[in-house]
Fold:
Amino acid sequence: MDRKEKIKPERLFLAISLIAGLAFALLQPLFIEPDSSYHFDKAMYISNTVVDRTKVGLSGEDYQSSPIPFTTVSSMMQKGVYFEKFFETKLPVISKEKVVDKRVKGTKWYKDIMHLVPSFGVKFGHAIFPSIGVMVITARLLVLLFFSISMYFIIRYLKAYRMLFVIISVTPVVIQFSTSLSYDSFNYVAFAWLSATLINIAVDIKEKKERLIFNTIIRLLLPCITVYFSKTNSYLLYSLAILILIILVGNKLKISLTKFQVGLIISLSSFFAVLIYIWRYQEAIFTILGKFIYTLIEPYYTVFTTEVISGTSTAGVPAWFYPIQYSVIILLLLSYTEERVPRWFAHGCFGVSIVNLLAILFTFSANPSFADLVITGPQGRYFTPFLLISSPFFTIFTKKIKVKYSGIFFKKAVVFTSIMALMLNLGLTMIKFYQIQSPMDEYRSGVEHYIFK
Structure:
C-alpha cells in the first residue's frame, strides 16, 4: 500500500492535525482532560508562572486528595460566569511554594521534560493576558504545534506503514491529548520516533541492505534517549532495539537459532516471569486473577474499546460509530499485503504490545488503592501508541485473509471515517458542555455503570 501512495501521507496528516487540533484546542472546555488540574499545576510550577486558582473558585488543595470536580467547571457555565472567571479575571504570579500537589513537587527532574512544552505555553499565555483561560489555550496551541511538526517529519521519513501512522495519529484520543497540557503528547511523539526508526531498520534488514552495527546504534541513540524521558511503558520498545542488535551481531558472527530454540527461550522467559509475579503477589494472586476475569467479561469496560481510539474517558463518540472506526482501522491493517519487515520483528512487535497490556492490567489489579471487582485505573490512551507497531504482525495474516480494495476509494473511506470521528467527538463535547451544561465526568461515564463493581 505504501509504495502506491500518490497523496503524501505526511501532508494529509499535517492538514488534519492542524485543522482538527485548532478546533479542539479552542472549543474544548477547560479542565475536562484526565488529570487536567495536575498537568496545569505542573506546567505552572516548571515555568515559575504559578497563579492562585482559588481566585476563580477552583480548589487549591492537593490534587490527589481533592481534585477539581467536573461539576465545578460545568456549574460556572450554568451560572454564566465561565468566560468571566477563566478568560477575563487577571491572576498575578505568586510564589511556586504555594503549590501543594505532591506529584508536582516530587517528580524527578528528567520527568519534567515531558511538561516542558506546556510549561512554555502557560508562560507565554500569561504574558499575553494573565488569565487561566489564555494560559491554557496558549499551551494547548503550542503543544499542538510541537506534536504536528514532529509527527510530520516522523511520517515523512518512515519507510513502511505510513498511512497507519497517519490514521492512528489523528484519532480523537491522540488529537485530544495533543491539544492538552498532558505529558501524553511528548510520550506519543517519542514512542512514534523510536517505532519509526525500528521499522526503518527492520525494512533495511528485510531488503538485505548492508547495515553496520555501529551505524545502527548511532541511528537508535537519539530516539532511545528521548523515550527514556517519556512514560515507563514506552521503555518496552528498548526490547525491540536490543532484538535488532542481537540479530545483527548474530548475522555478523553467522550464528542462527532454529524456531524450536527461539520458542524454548520465549517459553522459559515467560514461565519465569509468571513465577516471579506469583511470588511477589502470592497473598493476593487469587484476587488479582478474579479482577482480571471480571474485567474481561464486564460489558461496560471501555478501556479496551472507545478509550483507545474514540476519545478519552471524559469524551467519546456515539456507540454506533466506534465499531465503524475500528473496522476501518482493521481493514487498513489488513490492506498491507507485503511483508516489509522480517517475521521475527513482526512477532517482536506483537509480543511487546501483549506485554504492555498485561503489565498495565496486572499492575493496577495489584494496587490496593483500586478496590473494585474490575481493574480500575488504566486508561485506553495507555495502549494507543502501541497501535503504531501493529501492522507488521497483521501483515502475516494477510497471507491467509485477502482484503480487496480500490486504492483511492479505500483511502478516502479511511480518511472520511477519521474526520467523522473527530467531528462527532468534538461535537458531543460541545453539546454536552455548552448547550446541556453537563459535567464532563469520567467517573460517572465509566466506573459507576460497571456491573462488577
